[in-house]
Amino acid sequence: MSISITARAEARPNPTRSIQNRLPQQRPVRSPVLPSVQGVFSYHLVRVSRNRKTGPIPVTTTSANSCPPNCSFKGNGCYAQSGPLAIHWNAVSRGQRGSTFDEFLQEIATLRRHALWRHNQAGDLTPEAPGVIDARKLTRLAMANRGRRGFTYTHYPPTLGNQAAVVDANRLGFTVNLSAETLTQADNYADLGIAPVVVVLPQGVTKSTRTPAGRQVIVCPASTGNSDCLNCGICQQRDRASIVGFPAHGSSARRVEAIFFQEMHP
Ligand code: SF4
Questions:
Q1: pLDDT (tens digit, 9 = 90+) per residue, 247-257?
Q2: Prior bond to 158 cis, omega within 30?
């Protein structure tokens, strides 16, 4: 998952593009988010989001089986696993909404030029194996984004292979932020020098803070109600110096905080 913003499930079903028929039938379950069928991924695009935090930009959701096994928030505080977004994510994960990767790329390629769009309000990059980013698919996505201003976040571990995939995407103009779970991890990711970094913060934080190494962490202005992605766009800036912080929120915020504070109280 990317550490980011709560979204409302405003997406409309698209039965003509559904991959439901290729998935085993399952009883409808609303929450928590179901594990998707291994190896079958579903991608959903809303062209004009009604999420007040993103503003009216294109926003996507990827089935839950895209999330890497190492994400500490998986089933343990992930903001997307509760509330309206969880209902939408379930539908995408079951293949009731969304499309195949090839269809998804075609949709991205039709976004207007220079459009700011956010990939994965829930879900992560497509893997080729557990914990391993599918570099070819990421490159194809970055190519489809050309001329547009797509951005996303990833919880995939920065192994050498994953680093190369992320570097390539950023070089092609598709911004991939590395999502850290603690301030120390944010420093470690920033030390790699391969991509911009975001990090979770304790709930209620409204002012900038610093990492142990002294890097500035600015608070996402959408989390304080002062802006939205359309008017901010800092997560799309690949060369920014600041780390973006997202205060924990939602019904599982305390679990996110527990992970955040673990490094301070081992
Ligand atoms: S920092 Fe800006 S671009 Fe990033 S999530 Fe917040 S409002 Fe959107």
A1: 987 777 777 77
A2: no
Look up the pTM and report it: 0.84
CA 247 → CA 29, 163, 221, 232, distances in Å? 29, 26, 10, 17
Chain segment 54-78, per-residue pLDDT in tens = 999 999 999 999 999 998 888 777 8
3-state secondary structure of 266: coil
* Ligand 1 pocket residue status of 227, Cβ below 6 Å: yes
DSSP 242: S
In angstroms, what CA-CA distances link 16 with 93, 153, 186?
16, 29, 42
Both tokens of 264, joined, read: 């301070």
Ordered by start, the domain boundaries in the chain are 15-262
Residue nearest ligand 1's atom 4 by CA: 235
Residue matched to tokens 């499930």: 9
